[in-house]
Design brief:
The chain is mainly α. It has helices spanning 20-31, 35-41, 64-74, 78-82, 94-99, 127-131, 136-141, 223-235, 242-261, 272-288, 312-326, 330-342, 355-361, 365-374, 420-426, 438-454, 458-464, 484-491, 494-507, 516-522, 530-544, 552-568, 594-603, 615-627, and strands at residues 102-104, 107-109, 156-157, 162-163, 202-204, 207-208. The strands form three sheets. A two-stranded antiparallel ribbon has the order 1-2. It has a two-stranded antiparallel sheet with strand order 3-4. The relative contact order is 0.06.
Length: 647
Amino acid sequence: MARPDHRMARCLVPLPDESLPGFALRLGHRLGLPPGHVIWRLGLIGTNPTTSLATASHLVVLDRDRRERLARNIGTTARTADELTLRPLGDRFPPLVHALTKTVAGQPVVRRLLPPWILGSHSRYCPRCLAGDGSPIQQLHGGPWRRRWRLATSFACVTHRVFLQHQCPACHNPASFTGPNTITLLASPELKDLHPACCRTRVAFRTACRHRLDPVESTALPGDLADLQARLDRLLDPDTDPGHAYQTFASLQVVTAMILATWPAMAELVTSDQEAAIDEHLAAQQQLLATFRPNRAYHDEGVFWTHLPRHPVGAAGVLSAADQLLALTSTDRRRELHRLVQTMPDREEKRWGKTWEASFRELSSDLRALISEALPKPPPKPRLPPGTWHGKHLVPSVLPQRILKLDGYSARNIPQELPEPWFRICEPEITDPLPPITRRFRRVISIQLVQAVSGMDPQQAAEYLGLPIGSNLLNAEGPTRPPLRRLLPYIREQDGKLARLAEHLATLPQTGHVDYQQRRNRFELWHLPTDDFEGLLDRLVTGTGRPSPAPLDRLHEALSAIIWHRITGSELVLAPCFRPPLSPAGRTIDQHSPAVSLARRIQQATHRSPYRTLLPALDQITNCLLNGPAPACPSQSVTTERPSTAN
């Protein structure tokens, strides 16, 4: 049969947030055609409308040719056609990224098995939305089947303040269920006499339910859950930062899996009806375990803990519990996560699905560190054979098992720059002062300590410490790579050196542990206020009887970097005063920059140095900041250097 390729007569305009299956149902109802024929006419399936079936992948994405053909046939733009699929939400909803990770000829291709949190075989629905808004066209053909109803995080309609429905009240199957073992876009695509709001689930051979869903009564939505659903909906809006939305959904996905895996550990956070729905969901999963195979198709009711309950009330309960946990303070959140881990199944359990792979890597560094800290440490990997040391192996190298037993230490207690006393425990033979090359090795040891107590990989540990991308390698700084022979004295017997440091740290009282992560966050945008700098400058001029030997702006930056370094235990070169927004964009700062070199000279000032008079004052400012209220962020950037007033 020849298929036309031009705008259809009497075509409909897609409604906001309408899904492709819902649009096909409304258009077929208007034209008096089966929705399967409409899908064929729109160019989404093969040449024979009676034997070809549209796959559920079209719910997620359309390739360029189908998207452009669809746009021509309904008389709209390719962008509007694309918005009938879930693809535009992919930069803010992790499961969609996981579904689109395959590419063919540069085009995204949906995996055959849709991941959890994407409802591929059925849709939730709001009866009042399906009834329409009262306009003439919606009185005839009903309202939209919304895209967001295909996301497991949609449990309520905020507009009508009711829970969504998940099944037909007549046949008690999921609404318009395409079947547990099918991957088709529409249920009963050959039926042309059904209203778009009718249930199309097959109840017998070639027999559909046909029950109207729009007059179904819905349960009123409590205020706290309405607020939660509204916040989740806003994360999918175009004006919300995609990065923030992506991390929020990734966090919810991991924490909800932990809640379901340890249920009923968090049952006190949900209502009785939510608890009953969650219990029913887990009982249904338990029945499926007899035939469970890890590589089986991801069904919406699958046995993985990453699957939210199909019932919207149960899904709301799990999401609400996760939201409450994530809203706690860092200390309380750590306590609750440790409580969950006590009853959590082993991380190798197949029912975790992809929880510890894709989703876990997408968390914020803070939450990833808290969860890693709470999880049992995996067994050490096999050691590298002797003689295979290479610069790129230094960070991923195996740590001695003894360092995995740092009592009371967490990643938060590890400074970005390894303190000199700690390094001298590893390298007691090093002369004074420390050679510049040791800065790189000290950085590596800090990264390895974070790995040891948290289980992060090297890049995650570097990110957690606030180090730039690539800092997990010894040759990350500067344009030249140090010869391997210069690093060998610091590589040999590495395990014994780290074990020696671990023994020392284990003897320190826990009351003296410093929360460096909290300090890094608190002073993330701190710069020495002008008034304080002028006071230090007066002290320098009075003590030496002459103007500053260095340009004032350079001195201001150096003093700011020193104080920030003392507070946060971080590297001078990474001080906020050297980076945007406090410093002009595009400025290059390294260990040899004038301001960084000046800061090191001030720190190492001898009795002959004019800067020695500043050291007591710097100590005083540091102590005041540590014991005082949180610092205010500077309102202006640091200015560029200007000439010194010295003659």
